[in-house]
Amino acid sequence: MDETYTPKQASQQAVEWCKGHSGWKRICDIEDSDSLYKTWDELSERDRNSWIADYGSYSAEAAWREFGRRPCKVPYGFISGKGEFYKNVLQVPTLHNLMMIFKVK
């Protein structure tokens, strides 16, 4: 049978992992986690023009906010309920649950 872990276990494992890794915080411990992601104004001109070409100058920003992938400005990862770090969410075993963490310092 596969190992299973609860969201509560993943959260606690992330607390412990962050204590041992300076500058890392759980997403739920960051007051303004949206600030960790690029805004429309921070996109390159090339990226903005691509959206403008598809959606027009008036709705491109709204379309990007709705459908686009907002790149993260800092390193991040995921701690499983087993206490293991994963760079990609798709690598976390299905039944392990997870907590997202960010390098903020």
What does this structure look like?
The protein has two domains: 1-33 and 72-105, no CATH class; 38-70, no CATH class. The radius of gyration is 17 Å and the shape is elongated. Helices cover 30% and strands 15% of the residues. The protein has helices spanning 7-19, 45-55, 60-67, and strands spanning 24-26, 76-80, 85-86, 98-103. With 105 residues, it is α+β, with helices and mostly antiparallel strands. Helix 2 crosses helix 3. The chain has a four-stranded antiparallel beta sheet.
Task: Present the secondary structure layout.
Blueprint: H1 7-19, E1 24-26, H2 45-55, H3 60-67, E2 76-80, E3 85-86, E4 98-103
Overview features:
alpha+beta; four-stranded antiparallel β-sheet; 105 residues
Along the chain, the helix and strand elements come as HEHHEEE
Q: Could you list the spans in which at least 5 consecutive residues all have pLDDT below 50?
A: none
Structural class estimated from helices and strands: alpha+beta
Structural domain tally? 2
Major sheet characteristics: 4 strands, antiparallel
Q: Between the first and last Cα atoms, what is the distance in angstroms?
A: 39 Å
Which whole number gives the mean pLDDT? 94
Q: Report the radius of gyration as a whole number of Å.
A: 17 Å
Summarize the amount of helix as a percent range.
25-40%
Count of separate DSSP helical elements: 3
